[in-house]
Amino acid sequence: MTTGPLPRARQVPDPADRIRYGEEGRSGATPTIYDIARECGVAASTVSRAFSRPGRVKAETAQRIRDTAERLGYRTNPLARALPTGRTSMIGLVLSDITNPVYFEVIRGAQSAAAEAGFTMLLADTQESGELERSALEHSLPVVEGIVLGGSRMSDSAIRMAAKQRPMVVLNRLVADVPSIVSDSARGMRRAAEHLGELGHESITYVAGPEASWADGMRWRALREAGTELELKTRRLGPYPPTLKGGIRAAEDLLGQPNTTAVVAYNDLLAIGLVRGLARLGVQVPEQVSVVGFDNIFGADFCSPALTTVASPLRALGTAAVRDLVAQLAGAPVRTGQAAVLPVRLVVRESTAAPLTRRRGASRLRRMTAPVPAGSA
Question: Residues near 324 by Cβ (< 8 Å), separated by ≥ 6?
Answer without folding.
Answer: 169, 179, 181, 335, 340
